[in-house]
TrEMBL record:
<feature type="transmembrane region" description="Helical">
    <location>
        <begin position="29"/>
        <end position="49"/>
    </location>
</feature>
<dbReference type="Pfam" id="PF20152">
    <property type="entry name" value="DUF6534"/>
</dbReference>
<keyword id="KW-0472">Membrane</keyword>
<feature type="transmembrane region" description="Helical">
    <location>
        <begin position="173"/>
        <end position="196"/>
    </location>
</feature>
<feature type="transmembrane region" description="Helical">
    <location>
        <begin position="138"/>
        <end position="161"/>
    </location>
</feature>
<keyword id="KW-0812">Transmembrane</keyword>
<feature type="transmembrane region" description="Helical">
    <location>
        <begin position="217"/>
        <end position="237"/>
    </location>
</feature>
<dbReference type="InterPro" id="IPR045339">
    <property type="entry name" value="DUF6534"/>
</dbReference>
<feature type="domain" description="DUF6534">
    <location>
        <begin position="183"/>
        <end position="268"/>
    </location>
</feature>
<feature type="transmembrane region" description="Helical">
    <location>
        <begin position="104"/>
        <end position="126"/>
    </location>
</feature>
<protein>
    <recommendedName>
        <fullName>DUF6534 domain-containing protein</fullName>
    </recommendedName>
</protein>
<keyword id="KW-1133">Transmembrane helix</keyword>
Amino acid sequence: MVVLSRNEAEALSSLLGDPSAFLSKTTGAMLLGSFIGTVLYGALLHQAYRYMRLYPTDGAFMKTLVPTVVVLETFRTVCDIHYCYHDLVTKYAQILDIVLYIPWSANLLSVCAVLVGIATHLFFILRIWKLKSHLRFLAVLATAFHVIELTLGIVMSVRGFQLGGPAYFSKKWLIALCFGAGTLADLSITGALLAVMYNGHSTHERQSSIWDSVSVYFINTGLLVLILDLVVFILVLSTDNNLYWSAVHAVTTKIYATTLMSVLNCRKLGSNDGLKIHSGAAVRSIAHARRLATVQRWNVPEEPETMPERITINVQTEREGDDADTDFAKLESGMTVDDKRFIGECPNPRA
């Protein structure tokens, strides 16, 4: 048990106020976040099992990425549970020990959460890169922001081991920069995917149900993760002497992984067994088949295809004349399509 002098005790009391209120804003908030995060962790395990059963032919990258995310989320869940057990059971009613010293699990929460975010966003960054469009620079920006976030997350963990509890109640700018970089990475990824999906929807004008729209625009693009990260960032800047931001981030970390699994498990991998390749279009047909396979495997939003403004179609037919000795008569007709509108047809029979 920690023993403080009278002056130190008075200073600590003036800083913390009511001990029970302080615990409710720190360990109590983390306990609620851990409850919700553990439920989402169970959903993640179910999604991972479903992925292994439905997509056994995926490449080595995805077969490595999914177990990696599950392992990181498992370790994060263990850290959440150990932190709450340490404060509420091991150090029960020892407010000074709880404030001045935090367990190893709490010090690893930040870097573990950053690693989970990077692992899941790696798929989305490559997903944007597969678009082959002008939005690739957003993938580069997201990568740069994640490098900054990882660096700051490591610094936060090191400070936690060095300073103990006060590390999470001082240097708020460091915590804000870490989560701010992660939020900017989310913004880059979500913005790129939303832009492509909106353009594709406007072009194809397909009718979809409300649930399909929510799944596509709100979950699969990472918009839900972006909103939660914004909430965490605002809580870091606007509140003091609490761990509300860490509790919300415990839930956000699980949403990272469940979003990834949602995108992977909603894919429809088609078969190209019925693909027919004719002479003269073999190269283009093979390229289109490979492009289609990439789109399906990575669940890449389809960009609107550019169509030629004018298409001219000429048809030439031959018919036999009335007299068997006469030559075949030729009939030519032409049709022009401009911007999906029929312009005209002009038959021109020739003997």
